[in-house]
Every structure is written in C-alpha cells, then in structure tokens.
C-alpha cells in the first residue's frame, strides 16, 4: 500500500494521531507490510515502517523525510515507563570536505530543526508486532537548543577538517555525539589525515544522546 505524501503539516499530524495507541502488528496488517521477528539485523526497519505509513517522500539522505514540509521523522524506542532506550541516529558524518559546509546548510541542522517524534514502546523480549506506538508529537528546536547542537556539530567538523578523525569519540558533545556507524569493522570509508593524505577508517555518524531525547520526551508528553 502506497501512501501519498501529506500536503500540509495538519494532514501529517492527523495521520500520526491515527497511529497512536496501535501496535506495530495492527498497523502492518492494515498496510499489508510484513514484520520481521526481531530487529537485530534490521536496525532501520522501524523508522522506515513509520515513514511508509505516513507517506515520507524524501529520497535524499541529507534532506528531511517530509522535504516539502521541512519535517524530519524520528522514531524513539522507549519502555512502558517512558524511558528512552537508545540514542537516536541523525545522519552520516562526512569525513571529507566538511570545512566547506556551514551549519545551516548541514544535514544535521536540516534534520533536527523540526522533528516529528514517534515514540514506540516495547518490553524486553517482546515481539516486534506487539510494540506499541505512543503519542507522536511535533518538536521545533528552540534557539538555545540549536545553539548547543551547532557547537557540538562544529567541534566534530573542526576535528575532521584538521585531519584529526582519530580524536573523534562518543564522549564529546553535550547533545550530539559522534559514533562509528558500520555493520562490522570491515566496512571502511575514506577520510583525510593530518598530513592531508587519504586514509581508510570506520564510517562515523551523528547521534542524539538518549539523555537529551529523554528531556524532549518529558517536556512534550509531561512524563514524570
């Protein structure tokens, strides 16, 4: 079943509200979409599933999922008490040519400026079909949050532009951290070292810390 892109923000929110309270299995049956037994080898399946259900239209990884609305979709795995279970992937960190990119032109800014959060609740050992979609909400990053995200992004980009890819680690960044992004250690990508020479290294990605997304969730859903 193909869902056309929503034409307005209101239409998108109406669609998300129709998902609230339903299990993944219920929605999948309505959409005639098969559900994997587990997500160990299908890390991105849950997000892609919700994107399909809502009519996300962006085929460009550097643009928001609903490109004409400027809205990115992010699923947020939580437990049934409302605790965020993992960090949130944002996008790949380009390890070459970052010095030419400005913050407002970056995929990180475009994807985090306005986000449709879709929390999905699950319990340990629970089947994917029984995961339950909680109340989605639209979040516009306030200026003070954007300022911290920008600083985190600029610090990472500066290390890349100076050829100090080896100094990137997950401890850096208040809200936004950089971590290796690869299915295994054999998946390598190109980067530039301090001497300006091309080297091979693990791909890196930007992730939002779970402590940060927990704050967003509590503020928007009034969790205690």
Describe the structure.
The chain has a single domain (9-221), classed as 3-Layer(aba) Sandwich (ECO RV Endonuclease, Chain A), CATH 3.40.600. The chain contains 6 helices and 9 strands; from the N terminus they run H-H-H-E-E-H-E-E-E-H-E-E-E-E-H. The protein has helices spanning 9-19, 24-31, 45-54, 107-112, 143-161, 210-221; strands at 72-78, 88-93, 114-121, 132-133, 137-140, 176-180, 189-192, 198-201, 204-208. Strands 1, 3, 4 and 5 form a 4-stranded mixed β-sheet that branches. Strands 2-9-6 form a 3-stranded antiparallel β-sheet. Strand 7 (189-192) and strand 8 form a beta hairpin. The termini are far apart. The model has no long low-confidence stretch (mean pLDDT 92).
Which features does this protein show?
4-stranded mixed beta sheet, 9 strands, 6 helices, ECO RV Endonuclease, Chain A, globular, alpha+beta, 224 residues, 29% helix, 3-stranded antiparallel beta sheet
Brief digest:
With 224 residues, the chain is an alpha+beta fold. The chain is 29% helix and 20% strand.
What would you say the CATH architecture is?
3-Layer(aba) Sandwich
The profile of the biggest β sheet is: 4 strands, mixed
Helix amount, in percent? 25-40%
Q: Beta-sheet strand percentage? A: 15-25%
| SSE arrangement, N to C | HHHEEHEEEHEEEEH
Name the average pLDDT: 92
What is the H level of CATH, i.e. the homologous superfamily?
A: DNA mismatch repair MutH/Restriction endonuclease, type II
Strand-pairing-aware structural class: alpha+beta
- The tally of structural domains comes to 1
Model regions low in confidence, pLDDT < 50 over at least 5 residues: none
Number of strands: 9
Question: Quick one: CATH class?
Answer: Alpha Beta
Number of helices: 6
Quote the distance from N terminus to C terminus.
38 Å
Shape: globular
**Radius of gyration, CA atoms, in whole angstroms:** 18 Å
Query: Any idea of the CATH topology?
Result: ECO RV Endonuclease, Chain A
């Amino acid at each position: 079943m193909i869902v056309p892109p929503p034409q307005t923000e209101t239409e998108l929110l109406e669609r998300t509200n129709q998902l609230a309270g339903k299990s993944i299995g219920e929605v999948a049956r309505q959409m005639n979409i098969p559900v994997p037994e587990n997500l160990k080898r299908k890390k991105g399946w849950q997000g892609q599933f919700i994107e399909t259900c809502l009519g996300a239209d962006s085929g460009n990884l550097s643009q928001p999922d609903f490109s004409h609305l400027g809205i990115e979709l992010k699923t947020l795995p939580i437990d049934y008490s409302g605790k965020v279970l993992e960090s949130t992937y944002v996008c790949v960190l380009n390890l070459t040519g970052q010095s030419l990119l400005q913050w407002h032109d970056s995929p990180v800014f475009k994807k985090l400026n306005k986000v449709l959060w879709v929390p999905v609740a699950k319990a340990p050992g629970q089947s994917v079909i029984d995961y339950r979609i909680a109340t989605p909400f639209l979040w516009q990053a306030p200026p003070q949050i954007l300022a911290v995200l920008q600083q985190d992004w600029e610090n990472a980009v500066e290390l890349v532009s100076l050829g100090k890819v080896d100094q990137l680690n997950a401890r850096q960044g208040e809200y936004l951290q950089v971590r290796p992004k690869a299915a295994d250690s054999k998946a390598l990508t190109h980067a530039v070292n301090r001497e300006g020479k091309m080297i091979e290294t693990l791909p890196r990605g930007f992730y939002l810390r779970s402590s940060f997304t927990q704050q967003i969730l509590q503020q928007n859903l009034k969790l205690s």
